[in-house]
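Exercise 7b. Backbone tokens:
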């Protein structure tokens, strides 16, 4: 059995009777004196926030952990280096393809001059493929230079990163693998970088019923689903 707690040294509430009556009610404001400066006008009411749904929903920004900030800062420069490497490797691959085709052509011409029987049709198709691959590889190098490095220098990272993806797939074939690997891996990393994300439009709201994008109808002040033909 606990002994009864001693009463608190300070009473919780001061006796009301001790409070002077004059403090209980605030004195009324004095009437404006003639000739006295006018009191400042009341502050303007803050503009009302727009009703929900009228503005595109901003993209939720996920906080970046500090450990990755340094690597994120370095990423665009590294990505540019890798694109330059991929571009150079496209040129090297193009030269390899063209030289390879030319060597085959020399072999074919030599065999034909010596009267050695060769499958000229098969040889020619092989030579043709190598030469076409060579020209395509050099064209891809030009695209990488203009449409990726050029746009990165112009600070248009969204288009540049999208073009990296477009170049990565032929990079595996025409860039002898390496160009594709560099473009693909750094495209994947750059897609998570704020340089890429900031350029994306905000996501369009979708219909609750059919999950199709809805349109904002300013006259009705409502979202409209063209698929279900209903206002949400
Ligand atoms: Zn719908």
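Sequence design result:
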């Amino acid at each position: 059995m606990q002994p009864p707690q001693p009463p608190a040294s300070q009473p919780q509430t001061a006796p009301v009777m001790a409070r002077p009556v004059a403090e209980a009610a605030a004195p009324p404001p004095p009437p404006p004196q003639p000739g006295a400066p006018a009191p400042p006008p009341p502050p303007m009411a803050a503009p009302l926030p727009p009703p929900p749904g009228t503005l595109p929903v901003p993209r939720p920004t996920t906080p970046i952990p500090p450990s990755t900030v340094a690597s994120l800062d370095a990423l665009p420069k590294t990505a540019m280096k890798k694109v330059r490497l991929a571009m150079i490797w496209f040129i090297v691959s193009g030269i390899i393809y063209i030289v390879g085709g030319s060597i085959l052509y020399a072999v074919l011409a030599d065999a034909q001059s010596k009267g050695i029987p060769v499958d000229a049709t098969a040889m020619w198709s092989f030579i043709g493929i190598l030469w076409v691959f060579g020209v395509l590889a050099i064209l891809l190098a030009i695209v990488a230079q203009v449409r990726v490095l050029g746009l990165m220098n112009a600070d248009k990272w969204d288009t540049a990163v999208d073009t990296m993806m477009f170049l990565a797939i032929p990079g595996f074939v025409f860039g002898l693998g390496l160009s594709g690997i560099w473009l693909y891996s750094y495209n994947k990393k750059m897609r998570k970088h704020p340089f890429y994300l900031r350029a994306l439009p905000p996501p369009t709201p979708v219909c609750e019923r059919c999950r199709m994008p809805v349109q904002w109808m300013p006259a009705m002040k409502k979202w409209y689903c063209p698929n279900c033909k209903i206002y949400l």
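Instructor comment: Residues 6-27, 38-43, 45-50, 52-60 have pLDDT under 50 and may be disordered. The longest helix spans residues 66-113.
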